[in-house]
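Please, does this match?
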Amino acid sequence: MSRNTNKTAVQGAANYLDNMKYEMAGELGLNNYANIDKGDLTARQNGYVGGSMTRKLVQYAEEHMKNQQ
């Protein structure tokens, strides 16, 4: 049973974020991340995926804010 209670801030963004997660994992050499048992990965490996996503999202937001000025 899943215990994840995280909710996206923007409705409809969950699929985009999932795709982004798998793309980041692939770039980090974690192929087939969607089907891997995350418990078999180290905290560092899982952290790299989340950290890469965060960096990319912050970069996107900064570019978006810059273009609105």
Remarks:
- The mean pLDDT is 90.
